[in-house]
């Protein structure tokens, strides 16, 4: 039996701006994403898909999505399926205008009120993408309609191991400012949703610009670092929000014959093996 694992790469919080602009005058998010894309294309075995879990751009401007599409072109040229989710810095309409309908891109349909969908991966594993964006607000949330749609998506394949993706983490992290901007509205409904669907093995998120491990119902909940800038690890209750120059990174979720779903941290940069 072929024991080669299947890989899903999770990039997050790419925060792409219009060309030539920098975050806080010093963080080149475009250069960081170019490097991440280059590294993804080098991964062996070849990933079955790439998920970007929100805050794709920094202000939701159409020019930012045009820039993002240019930066992601090497993945599209390589015919790697791409699954996109909105975060609180995103805007659904310009996101869909630039990406909906492209071959191998999953992001919902133009005119939809929420970007929610399911993607069947080999192995098998099912990716269910949920939209936690609350327009105009930094915190995330689900209304009754979105929770009902999520329940319907999860009910379609109850026998298939499933990974649920959303931008806002559904658990506290100890990062005081970010915890006020986590999944707030509909949190109890989301927890009940996961509890009802035992096939959900992992909940994966972005937003925190750090790797964290929590839990929602029976499932482990993991947040991915940013491909560009991280947030300082300061667990004081009065800690301000601060950017740190810690290494960027992304997650690689692996599964397959004899391998339960496991999540790995990959860091930016080139790190040769020592033999």
UniProtKB/TrEMBL annotation:
Q: What keywords sit in the KW lines?
A: Hydrolase, Iron, Metal-binding
Gene3D superfamilies hit by this protein = GpdQ, beta-strand dimerisation domain (3.30.750.180), GpdQ, catalytic alpha/beta sandwich domain (3.60.21.40)
So which domain of life are we looking at? Answer: Bacteria
What range(s) does the Calcineurin-like phosphoesterase domain occupy? Answer: 9-210
Q: Name one Pfam family in it.
A: Metallophos
Instruction: Return the similarity comment.
Output: Belongs to the cyclic nucleotide phosphodiesterase class-III family.
Q: What is this protein called?
A: Phosphodiesterase
Organism name = Pelomonas cellulosilytica
């Amino acid at each position: 039996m072929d024991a080669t694992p299947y890989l899903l790469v999770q990039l997050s919080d790419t925060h792409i701006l219009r060309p030539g602009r920098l975050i806080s005058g010093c963080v080149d998010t475009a250069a960081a994403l170019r490097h991440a894309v280059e590294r993804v294309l080098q991964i062996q075995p070849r990933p079955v898909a790439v998920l970007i879990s929100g805050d794709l751009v920094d202000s939701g401007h159409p020019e930012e999505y045009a820039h993002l599409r240019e930066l992601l072109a090497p993945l599209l040229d390589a015919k790697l399926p791409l699954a996109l989710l909105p975060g609180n810095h995103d805007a659904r309409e310009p996101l869909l205008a630039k990406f909906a309908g492209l071959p191998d891109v999953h992001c919902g349909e133009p005119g939809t009120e929420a970007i929610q969908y399911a993607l069947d991966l080999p192995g098998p594993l099912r990716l269910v993408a949920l939209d936690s964006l609350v327009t105009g607000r930094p915190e995330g949330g689900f209304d009754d309609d979105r929770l009902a749609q999520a329940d319907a998506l999860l009910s379609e394949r109850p026998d298939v191991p499933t990974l649920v993706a959303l931008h806002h983490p559904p658990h506290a992290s100890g990062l005081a400012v970010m915890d006020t901007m986590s999944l707030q509205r509909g949190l109890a409904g989301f927890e009940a949703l996961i509890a009802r669907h035992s096939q959900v093995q992992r909940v994966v998120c972005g937003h925190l610009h750090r790797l964290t491990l929590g839990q929602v119902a029976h499932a482990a909940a993991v947040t991915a670092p940013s491909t560009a800038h991280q947030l300082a690890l300061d667990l004081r209750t009065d800690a301000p929000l601060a950017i740190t120059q810690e290494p960027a990174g992304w997650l690689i979720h692996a599964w397959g014959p004899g391998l339960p779903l496991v999540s790995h941290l990959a860091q930016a940069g080139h790190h040769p093996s020592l033999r």
